[in-house]
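Fold in tokens:
===
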Amino acid sequence: KSIEKPRAPFPTPPESNQREWAMSNFSNLFEAINETDPDTPLWTWGRDQNMRFFIRRMTHETLLHMRDAESVIGEFITVDGDVACDGIDEYIDGALQHSMNPQKEFLYPNGSIHLHRTDGEGEWLIEPNGNAILVSREHAKGDVAVRGSAISLLLYLWGRSPQELEIFGEPELAKAWGSLAP
């Protein structure tokens, strides 16, 4: 017999006082993260089934939306390249592979991409294989190559258009890979 798990209601913002509502929810999230051992098992939509998943996810989600907010005024804080590099891994492991619905027809772009980090170590070759991808962390030739700092590559993967990228190969293929973010 199947046991149905209770579901929490989706948090819908109130008609007014949305800032206070958001800050309260942020406080609740921050408290839960601080009070929970990172290795505590819990359900996630990713490969890692523990609180560490949410700590990592919230780090990169916050980084991305902080960059969005900063772009309004054109002033940006310095982002640690290794944190942004982990964001690339997290995007590839999470959104790019596990957020795609296998029940729906989905095909990756028709050609491989090589991502090359210029501000430290980090290279990825992503090859489409039907509705799956093969990923290797190596220097290899793709059908298109995108070079830039870790933060620029991360922004590119999440559908932003950073100016500091070099593209070698077919620009349309690069555009296709940079527009997959859910």
Remarks:
- Helices lie at 18-35, 51-73, 81-98, 150-157, 171-177.
